[in-house]
Design goal:
The chain has 98 residues and is an alpha+beta fold. It has helices at 26-31, 43-55, 74-82, and strands at 65-69, 88-91.
């Protein structure tokens, strides 16, 4: 790397809530004059291309969808994402016939 290069670190929580993340040593970064910036990824820009690839079965989104719930399980799914136990939850509605 050279001065001004960027390193992207998605899911870099480093606070123990992410099972596959390493803690960030802020003291080492400070002593080496390394800047840390955060922000929201421009995911909407990638959606059209990703949807085309998913529909063409070139990529599999299932590793991100770690939990499936029915309509009644939606609150449990949101709680799992809020507590960082799950990345994404897929809601599968089941239609009830009268």
């Amino acid at each position: 790397m050279k001065k001004g290069d960027w390193v992207l670190a998605p899911f870099a929580f480093g606070d123990g809530t992410c099972e596959f993340c390493e803690p960030i040593d802020l003291g080492r970064m400070f002593s080496h004059n390394i800047s840390l910036r955060g922000g929201v990824a421009p995911v909407r820009a990638y959606i059209p291309d990703l949807m085309d690839q998913v529909l063409a079965e070139r990529i599999d989104p299932s590793p991100v969808l770690e939990m499936s719930v029915d309509l009644m399980g939606v609150p449990e799914g949101y709680a799992a994402m809020d507590s960082r136990r799950k990345i994404k939850v897929m809601e599968k509605p089941e239609f009830i016939a009268n």
